[in-house]
Write the structure tokens for this entry.
Amino acid sequence: MDKDYASEEEFLKNYDSSKFEKLSATVDIAIFSVASSKQDNYRKLNNKHFSVLLVKRNRYPFKDMWCLPGGFMGIDETSEEAAKRVLARETNLKNIYLEQLYTFDDVKRDPRMRIISISYVALVDKNRLDDTLFDNASWFNMEIEENDKEIKVNLDNGEENFDIFIRKTLKELTTDRYKYTIKKNEKLAFDHPLTIASGINRIKNKLEYTDVAFNLMPEYFTLGELQQVYEVILGKKLLDPAFRRIIASKVEKTDKERIDGGHRPSKLYRYRGKNL
Amino acid sequence: MDKDYASEEEFLKNYDSSKFEKLSATVDIAIFSVASSKQDNYRKLNNKHFSVLLVKRNRYPFKDMWCLPGGFMGIDETSEEAAKRVLARETNLKNIYLEQLYTFDDVKRDPRMRIISISYVALVDKNRLDDTLFDNASWFNMEIEENDKEIKVNLDNGEENFDIFIRKTLKELTTDRYKYTIKKNEKLAFDHPLTIASGINRIKNKLEYTDVAFNLMPEYFTLGELQQVYEVILGKKLLDPAFRRIIASKVEKTDKERIDGGHRPSKLYRYRGKNL
DNA sequence: TGAATAGTGTCTGTGAGACAATATTAT
DNA sequence: ATAATATTGTCTCACAGACACTATTCA
């Protein structure tokens, strides 16, 4: 027990911060984007993919495996500041959508020592990025399959292709919270499969009741493109009229239009802000 | 830069974990419940209040101020384990609804040293608690007023009564995320006003699309009581028929009933699980 | 009897799902 | 002309909001 001190200042002056065993914290960011790939058929629209930025580790631990961009949180910076620092290093962009996701803190999640991971989700419009990534970073398209029991994500960057499997177990009757357990993972470092799965889930949910999707869009876009973004993230087709009804109040039509194939040109729209 | 090692084992054997300046982590829990207080009028139902458990600090820092139950996270336990440990200490209960909320990590949030707080929300049915709390713990009824710009919470434990004010600033156009800043706080330690406000918000949101409310209920309850719980947390009156329609599929009527005043007795219901 | 809560019936308007129909382009 | 996307119209059904009405109890 503490001795009695006359005042808080007195107490702080005598405080011995080495009393407890300390730990380290890293910040790991699931940077998501939507990638487009050309179709064979000149009439068709570009294919879109929900994608995540991974970095190949060039040092131990988990050398030569892929991981989320991240880094140690400095003793004099917040995790959000650290996340922005990592984001700037990785993308050269500011004003990126960034949201704290979850703090992963399994005792054995890092083989070096006790390191907890304060994870973040970021959304970027790939059009804003120049394609010159660090040579050890790469965008992976994600093919997501999810049901009550498990999540399967196929990751593909054009050269490497691998799956991660995560088992879901319901935490309690009253909610839809699941405990995630890695069932299969050969290529990703640490517990990053969990981070990616949690991040996907967070964005999926937010898509339904917020306008986060617009963080993935360029300034001008067609409603078809926007709908594609919703569809690849939600993993299902949407009905055109319903989608347009919902989105109508959030966008404004411009007089620009895009002509890009053997079909009717589409008007370009711009994000207008929530509701009114 | 690291030297080159022949293998991961080699690397780990030589790893010097003292390279980085480390930090401490605490776990703080916003334990919420719904308290009933008798009405003057024998006909009326008990008044209900959304309430939070606070502990009076008996040592520095923030001596004699109120704070959320919490404690340091051990080097060999996860934050969830630590939270359960704190919860058991504080309530003597197991199987309590517990959910990670947010990691607060302002550099100056603790005057002693760099300590981050991994915060949790817990929901308990006060009926399951015996009333013998530690003498330094106390339930505070919360009166919540919120608008676009600020949150005001009045806290009252029957002896002490005080307000906290929090300013909300929208983080971005695309979502409803706000940055919280403490505007007024005289009685609560650390940044716990933020934790409480965030916790209230989390539960408010979850109330709308999950069944978390049932974690605040005893096994048998009337629909009136259940509706009261929704009403005090959401801070608005609900229409009886609409409420019953929504809740109908989630509860089952029992043959028990409760007679408690100058009005028609009500049937007791039981939680049945989500949807079907 | 009256005040209070318990519980049900029903009307109406909104909005999502579904499908049909029209418009426009490059090949 | 045709395949593809763009865009709009409309029907229906489910459901939430609103309000009215009945039931039952205790002082």
